[in-house]
Amino acid sequence: MPSPTFQAAACISDEDDDRALIESYLNGDREAFTSLVVRYQRPIYNAAFWVLRKHEDANDIAQIVFLKVAERADEYDPKYKFFSWIYRITVNESLNLLRRKGHEQELDDDVDIPDEDSADPERQASSAELARHLRSKLLTMSTTDRLVITLRHFSECSYEDMAAIIGVDEKTVKSRLFDARRRLRGLMQDVYGR
After folding, report:
1. Burial class (CB in 10 A: 0-12, 13-18, 19+), 174
2. The pTM of the whole model exceeds 0.85
């Protein structure tokens, strides 16, 4: 899997379609499961990477997540969003791997993301440099900070969705995100000169 991107993975997809695919899979349609894997492979890998900071670990977690989804598809409750369910599995598996490796961290305005579609070559080069700097600073942050920033800014999750994925209330999500953004701004001061 390639390096994680800063392009939005869109936390929300067509929930009705996801539910139909799960139902088809439970009725024996293997292609339905393949469609889910194709749809969620990059977002799951990216979510795992931003927690774990290692490509090989993120690849391993993505495989584990899809195996768990295949084995436990009958446990999915269609009254909830599928992506929240699969992201929660991803976050839990990623945090479990950190704990096993001895890097346990408790889970306890806007950052400007470069526009990579700019037509100006100078601006593209500057944006690419800023993106590299942002990525390197983000990787130095705590697991909790990386998780909330990634879910909000790179997966475009709502506060409600983030609360469901992380397993805390929306007020806590907003507080964690506010603090994480403040810390990231502090790390990015040398770039912005503020």
Report:
1. middle
2. no
